Amino acid sequence: MGSSYDHAITVFSPDGHLFQVEYAQEAVKKGSTAVGLRGEGIVVLGVEKRSVPKLQDERTVRKIHKLDDHVCMAFSGLTADARILVNMARVECQSYRLTMEDPVSMSYIARHIASVKQHFTQRPGLRPFGLSTLIVGFDYDGSAHLFQTDPSGTFHEWKANAIGRSGKTVREFLEKHYTDEIAASDEACIKLTVRALLEVVQSGGKNIELAVMRRGKPLEILDSKTVEKLVEETEKERDAETEAKKKAAGKS
Q1: Which residues make beta-bridge pairs with 212?
Q2: Cα–Cα distance for residue pair 71/218, rounded to 1 Å
Q3: The sheet that has 131-138: what strands, in order across it?
Q4: Does residue 107 carry a pLDDT above 90?
Q5: Which one, of 106, 118, 138, lies nearest residue 213 by Cα?
Q6: Cα 228 from chain centroid?
Q7: 120 with 127: CB under 8 angstroms?
Q8: What is the DSSP letter of 58?
Q9: Exposure string over 137-146, b if 16+ CB within 10 A, otherwise e
Q10: Neighbours of 187 (CB within 10 A)
Q11: 92 near 46, Cβ under 8 Å?
Q12: Do 136 and 145 form a contact (C-beta atoms < 8 A)?
């Protein structure tokens, strides 16, 4: 069925599918895992770092990008597409600031990125962006936000979410473990993000990149030593919980 209707982006199949958009969503599922989490006074982004060739400078391979002083974004999917989208979003942030004399609101920039993506699903001669994004930051009133956009141009706000390879598995983990008590603690938010990534990242801290933004403070990309320490602490806590559950099961 798909082969007859997947050549043109503007043509629906008889059962209501836009196959090029669905193919773009498949590209996202093959991308690195990215996790976003919103606390009361903090937002956290964590991404899976793929191994790079020995002679390549890993600083040129970034999955987390700053859009404005109070907004940053992680993505999963095609890196080249992400570079174009990041540049568009940065220009829009500065254009809004110049026109309105205020920093861009989180809902506005999320809606703008989603609108750009949707535009590329409805015009002949174009193709959808092959990436999903997690956009985090703070509004002028100090409220934290996390938005997710996908290749179709839809966007939603979340408390915690994951995209990319094994995104569904990580999202289910977050649904089980995210609580208001964790959202109230900056340290707990960071550790839950690390723990969620460890569900799919097997090689520990060297393949994890973390970015943290606290209310009223600039974006902070955690260095590798700090990430390694967080991973060690998280693994110890996880092992202790597992051991406690085994003992409880043995007594019962």
Answers
A1: 44, 220
A2: 9
A3: 64-68, 71-77, 131-138, 144-149, 155-157
A4: yes
A5: 138
A6: 20
A7: yes
A8: G
A9: bbbeeeebbb
A10: 12
A11: no
A12: yes
Residue 142 has pLDDT above 70, yes or no: yes
Residue 203: what pLDDT? 74
The label of the residue with tokens 């109230």 reads 184
Per-residue model confidence (pLDDT) at position 114: 98
Predicted model pTM: 0.92
Per-residue CA distances from 28 to 45, 68, 221 (Å): 17, 24, 23
Q: Which residues contact 26 (CB under 8 A, 6 or more apart)?
A: none
Q: Which residue has the tokens 């998280």?
A: 234
Answer whether 130's CB lies under 8 Å from 24's CB: yes
Query: Which amino acid is residue 98, in one-letter code?
Result: L
**182 and 39 in contact (C-beta within 8 Å)?**
yes
CB 47 within 8 A of CB 33: yes
Q: Enter the tokens of residue 7.
A: 């050549």
First to last CA, the chain: 55
Residue 45: the pLDDT is 98
Q: 168: buried, middle or exposed (CB in 10 Å: 19+, 13-18, 0-12)?
A: exposed
Listed residue (29, 44, 32) closest to 174, CA to CA: 44
